Amino acid sequence: MKKWMLCGFILAGLAGCGGQESKAFRNGASVKRLDGSTITSEEIDSTVKRVMRAGKVTGVGLAILNDQELVYLKAYGHRSLGKNLPLTEDSVMSAASFSKVAFAYMVMQLVEEGVLNLDRPVWEYLSKPLPEYSEYKDLAGDDRWKRITARMLLDHTSGFPNWRTFEDDRKLHIHFEPGSRFAYSGEGIDLLQLVVEKVTKKSLGTLMRERVFRPLGMTRTSMTWRFGFETNHAEGYDEQENALGPQRRLLADAAGSMLTTPRDFARFIEAVMQGEQLRKETREVMLSPQIAILSKHEFPPLSTETTEENKPIRLSYGLAWGLYWTPYGKAFFKEGHDDGWRNYTVCFDDAKTGMVIMTNSSNGEGLYKELLETLLKNTYTPIEWEGFAPYEQKN
Question: DSSP character for 17?
Answer without folding.
Answer: S
